[in-house]
Write a structure and sequence with these properties.
This protein is an alpha+beta fold and 56 residues long. It has one helix and three strands; from the N terminus they run βαββ.
Length: 56
């Protein structure tokens, strides 16, 4: 997985929101997925402790 640093003054795609969590273990990731549930409108990407959630 390739991650891009979040730049505060960079232009973003209209309508897309993204949040990135670092240093999460697998158990924390599973807890987040269970809390959000199956009917989410967000895409989750988890790789080696980094979780990226993208919502359209």
């Amino acid at each position: 997985m390739v991650t891009t640093p979040l730049l505060l003054n960079s232009p973003r795609s209209i309508g897309e929101k993204r949040v990135i969590f670092h240093k999460l273990n697998g158990q924390a990731y599973q807890q987040i997925v269970l809390a959000i549930g199956e009917s989410r409108s967000a895409h989750f990407t988890y790789d080696r402790g980094t979780l990226e959630i993208t919502a359209l």
